[in-house]
Amino acid sequence: MNLYETIGARRDTRREFTGEPLPDDVLTRVLEAAHAAPSVGLSQPWDFVLVRSPGTLAAFREHVVLERDTFAASLSGERARTFDRIKVEGIRESGLGVVVGYDPSRGGPAVLGRHAIADAGLYSVCLAIQNLWLAATAEGLGVGWVSFYREEFLRDLVGFPAHVRPVAWLCLGAIAERPEVPDLERAGWRRRTPLSTALHAERYSPR
Amino acid sequence: MNLYETIGARRDTRREFTGEPLPDDVLTRVLEAAHAAPSVGLSQPWDFVLVRSPGTLAAFREHVVLERDTFAASLSGERARTFDRIKVEGIRESGLGVVVGYDPSRGGPAVLGRHAIADAGLYSVCLAIQNLWLAATAEGLGVGWVSFYREEFLRDLVGFPAHVRPVAWLCLGAIAERPEVPDLERAGWRRRTPLSTALHAERYSPR
Predict the structure, then answer these.
(1) In which domain, by residue range, is B86 found?
(2) Is A149's Cβ below 8 Å from some Cβ in B?
């Protein structure tokens, strides 16, 4: 797959996981791709915790179900009915959670490029996540980013020290098929907009 | 170029820009790649301001030079001497700045997946930046992320409203050659570490 094909084929996967275990070499390629991401001051400030324990997966899922309810309770009418049809996680079905953390103490004490933008290290972690996502796509795997959780819960669950910030829980695994259309679009939650809505020349122009 | 080749070839580019203007179709492919990134709740919360005006490029560069001095003043000894050799921007040489903003009002009022993680939208913007970076690499272009600036300066410079947060200034342009080794490694600032330093099984383990 070339890069543009991979970018076009990448989807957020929730329903399609088969639970089939991943070969070590495939998983290593995907993680190496993440680790090859750019980072501010070459700090490589990410951590990846691979969670396969059924107990941990179940505990995280239980927490996510509660947070799903919290969000659902904030909706009404058509939004509530539409959200009701949407699956927000494939934690147990994927069989593997990659918990991504941000460690601001990495690459220090003086991280080149971070003195004025404190969040630059956090941005680096996200670049690594996108590399991981694309590599998984090229390998025919699915990734589902779960964000229905509280950071402190996930920090405790995987034992991050206080200075490491949880950034993502990524369900990673083999999938039966790759959806062509984003789940949220298919469910009628929201449609993608064209690039022109986000593009400005020389200065920002309100739309 | 396949995905892994692109990920391996991607560098942060500062010295190599030629200033040659980009064909419209190439620039559009690169921006469409960014716009195809995953986003929380399909909110696509990014803005891209394309800056080519020599006056704006020069004004931004002037600000960045001052911030470079601020960081340099915090260093001493070997760190100061090493930093002295490092170029931190190619703002005028690239001829094009892509200013990336985060608009949290996009995709609302209820953004699916953001009620518990306020920064999830910011994360989405970074995923778009990595797509852009890889697409530029596949097109043979260079990208240099400049982070020696104050957010409020950049907000004013490109006219972002108060609710849009500047996330990046990306120098984007044709390059004479692609460096094989990261600039900071070449200059002796810092070396890349192996993946094993960032990898944990089931729970975080301090290194």
Answers:
(1) 3-189
(2) yes
